[in-house]
Amino acid sequence: MTQRKGSDYAGLSVAIVTPFRDGEVDYSLLRAQIEFQIEAGTNCIVPVGTTGESPTLSHDEHERVISEVIQVVAGRCKVMAGTGSNSTAEALRLTQRAEREGADATLQVAPYYNKPMQEGFYQHFKAVAEAVSIPVCVYNIPGRTGKVIEAETIARLAELPGITMVKEATGSLDMCSQILNQTDLTVLSGDDSLTLPMLAVGAEGVVSVAGNIVPKDMRALVESFAKGSVEEALRLHHQLFPLCKNMLGLATNPIPLKAAMRLLGRDSGEMRLPMTPLDSASEAQLVSTLKAYGLL
């Protein structure tokens, strides 16, 4: 198989949470999370994405979290900084700053709320890709942004040398197949529960939420498939599936994830409004899910 652009990001990337304490970012907890991921063999850490509650961070906090992650990682794994925005000027500023700090790549979410036309998507990502020298991962998640980046637009973007990856979270295997059929981009699953089906059609990794608590299992799934151990990958898929669906289905990410981390003794601090903690009934369901997986 021809090597794809961005294939050095194959494997497990983990979209980490941003820990808060008394309304402030808790950098000691952030450092502990990073060490946990590196010890698990995670290929790439993705700070200040959706899981990192990036919409609630000030610009200064956003930049400092990225800088802190890069400094603590110190080259031991890759860092793909979440620096997207629905303002092209802001995405440029955040991405250029992350590049100066030493980020290996940038995760660029589709501009949200203002719902650009397809030409607007193209020009937005083109502007970012041409302003920096680090690889760009286009993040397609219409459930969050209100509009899909169509496969034809992604095919146009793939012609730009700086755009090397897509984090595919439309929930559509057809979309995944179209991108792989029409481009030389590396596709990373944006849905934990769809990781194996997407690998089966040619994706090469995942940007995982569940990897915050079970990184070794998520990594084993991706690596088993890559080595041709399909039966083992299938076993891990069915082991992980109830955890991914039942935990992340309880409330908007990262609400149930932060609750799970606290229950597992890996406290990631409080939520920041407008995100609110998991209610007691949902937490009881979460406890059952974690017990069924064998984590509690």
Descriptive overview:
The protein has twelve helices and ten strands. The mean pLDDT is 97. The strands form two sheets. Strands 1-4-5-6-7-8-9-10 form an eight-stranded parallel β-barrel, surrounded by five helices. A two-stranded antiparallel sheet has the order 2-3. Helix 8 links the parallel strand 9 and strand 10 (205-208). The longest helix has 19 residues, at 230-248. The protein has 296 residues and is of the alpha/beta class. It has a single domain (7-227), classed as Aldolase class I (TIM Barrel).
Summarize the structure.
It is built from twelve helices and ten strands.
Q: What are its keywords?
A:
globular; 12 helices; EC 4.3.3.7; alpha/beta; 296 residues; 14% strand; Aldolase_TIM; two-stranded antiparallel ribbon; TIM Barrel; amino-acid biosynthesis; 8-stranded parallel barrel
**CATH class category:** Alpha Beta
Rg over alpha carbons:
18 Å
Note poorly predicted spans: none
Task: State the end-to-end distance.
Answer: 42 Å
According to DSSP, the number of beta strands is 10
Q: Which CATH-level-2 architecture?
A: Alpha-Beta Barrel
Estimated share of beta-strand residues:
5-15%
Largest sheet: 8 strands, parallel, barrel
What level of helicity do the residues show? Answer: 40-55%
- Within the largest sheet, what's the order of strands? 1-4-5-6-7-8-9-10
SSE arrangement, N to C: EEEHEHEHEHEHHEHEHEHHHH
Shape: globular
Task: State the helix count.
Answer: 12
CATH superfamily: Aldolase class I
Subunit structure: Homotetramer; dimer of dimers.
Pathway: Amino-acid biosynthesis; L-lysine biosynthesis via DAP pathway; (S)-tetrahydrodipicolinate from L-aspartate: step 3/4
Keywords: Amino-acid biosynthesis, Cytoplasm, Diaminopimelate biosynthesis, Lyase, Lysine biosynthesis, Schiff base
Pfam families: DHDPS
